[in-house]
Design brief:
The chain is of the alpha/beta class. The protein has 15 helices and 13 strands. The chain has helices spanning 14-22, 47-59, 72-83, 88-91, 102-117, 131-139, 159-167, 191-204, 226-234, 265-280, 289-298, 301-331, 340-343, 355-365, 385-396, and strands at 29-30, 95-100, 122-127, 143-148, 150-151, 156-157, 174-178, 207-212, 238-243, 256-261, 348-350, 367-368, 374-376. The structure holds pyridoxal-5'-phosphate. Homodimer.
Length: 397
């Protein structure tokens, strides 16, 4: 049965991590996989997380199954973080959340729900987007299409092209937006642009769905959900796949959530019962440890404050590295203007490097960047900046 199978291509991002690991060069630099690293290139466990884990170790009473939708305390805290503590949507029971094993699983539940339980058979993704989006939605059976998003000449959103593409999307299709810190470009719509996008969604009656994987990594916890909240408050229905991998540093615990908003409590209840059937036949119920950590922190004011401070440190370090990167490139003699990199949000930067330049950096200098030219700014440090910029300037020459 298996003999006829051919080898699948390595994942474009995770595959690169393996090649990096095997590279024996001492000065190698990894700017590929989307994981936060501190000044010592370590992906740290947050103190707030360690404290929550100590608490759980002492106080956890049972390892029995969680409900299909996960921990109630986790789910409410997730809704409040995304929609605001006093959201009328939550008070009106229009919001339902299922804890999921990471943002990826939340996206897959979203995809299965859309394809199997609603009339939606097609989803539109930004061009470019996180490469796994296509695979996740396609595997669920949805037809995947793209809308224009990025203007490489101006390093900005191609906003006119975006609006014109959105105007032509048929009623009932789903359209995926990155809530913040667009991956890979680092460029998000402004509040005014979100308003314009919302106006098209309202007029054309397609279904906006959100991927919120980096809340807190852009402008801040509140700033990063301006678009999501605008849509949630204005539209009858919305789906949000969110992740705690990055903002809690809980990558390998697999913590995320799917949040569904419906027109009223009754519809929300019915729709969510269908979401639960999808989960039941997929992984049955979510793992508990990561969800418990997040719930414990978000429901404990002191720990929550400590977490927000730690998140702020991560966000500010990335921003400092952006500034230093642009400055060092100049000092090393680049004749190109890289100032756009300072304006981008989140961990990633679309550098404008071509695939050929990316490969030269990898082969000749031990610098790992994904083929699209997307750079993980969190991989930069005070120590590797000089070598990094020197090498880029040489490759650009
Ligand atoms: N969505 C985007 C845009 C991402 O960049 C990522 C992770 O890199 C995810 C979703 C998946 O997150 P998780 O690791 O929680 O599955």
């Amino acid at each position: 049965m298996f003999e006829s199978l051919v080898k699948a291509p390595a994942d474009p991002i995770l595959g690169l991590a393996d090649i990096y690991k095997a590279d024996e060069r001492v000065h190698k630099i990894n700017l590929s996989v989307g994981v936060y690293k501190d000044e010592n290139t370590v992906t740290p466990i947050l103190n707030s997380v360690k404290k929550a884990e100590s608490y759980l170790l002492e106080n956890e009473q049972s390892k029995s199954y969680l409900p299909i939708e996960g921990l109630a305390t986790f789910n409410l805290a997730t809704q409040q973080l995304i929609l605001g503590n006093d959201s009328p949507l939550i008070q009106d029971n229009r919001v339902k959340t299922a804890q999921a094993p990471g943002g990826t699983a939340a996206l897959r539940i979203m995809a299965d729900f859309l394809f199997n339980k609603t009339k939606t058979k097609r989803i539109w993704l930004s061009q470019p987007t996180w490469p796994n989006h296509r695979g996740v939605f396609h595997s669920a059976g949805l037809e995947v299409k793209e809308y224009r998003y990025y203007d490489p000449q101006n390093h900005n959103i191609a906003f006119d092209a975006l609006l014109s593409d959105l105007e032509n999307i048929p009623e009932g299709d789903a359209v995926l937006f990155h809530g913040c810190c667009h991956n890979p470009t680092g460029i998000d719509p402004t509040a005014e642009q979100w308003q314009q996008i919302l106006a098209v969604a309202t007029k054309k009656r397609w279904l906006p769905v959100f991927d919120l994987a980096y809340q807190g990594f852009g402008g801040g916890l509140e700033e990063d959900v301006v678009g999501v909240r605008l849509f949630a408050n204005a539209l009858p229905e919305l789906l949000i796949a969110s992740s705690y991998s990055k903002n809690f540093g809980l990558y390998n615990e697999r913590v995320g959530a799917l949040t569904l908003i419906a027109e009223n409590a009754d519809i929300a209840d019915k729709a969510f019962s269908q979401v639960k059937t999808i989960i039941r036949t997929n992984y049955s119920n979510p793992p508990s440890h990561g969800g418990n950590i997040v719930a414990h922190i978000l429901n404990n004011p002191e720990l929550k404050e400590e977490w927000i401070a730690e998140l702020t440190v991560m966000r500010q370090r990335i921003h400092r590295m952006r500034q230093l990167f642009v400055k060092t490139l100049q000092e090393k003699g680049t004749n190109q203007d890289f100032s756009f990199i300072v304006k981008q949000n989140g961990m990633f930067s679309f550098s404008g490097l071509t695939e050929e330049q990316v490969l030269t950096l990898r082969n000749d200098y031990g610098i790992y960047i994904v083929n699209s030219g997307r750079i993980n700014v969190a991989g930069m440090t005070l120590d590797n900046m000089s070598l990094l910029c020197e090498s880029i300037v040489k490759v650009l020459a």
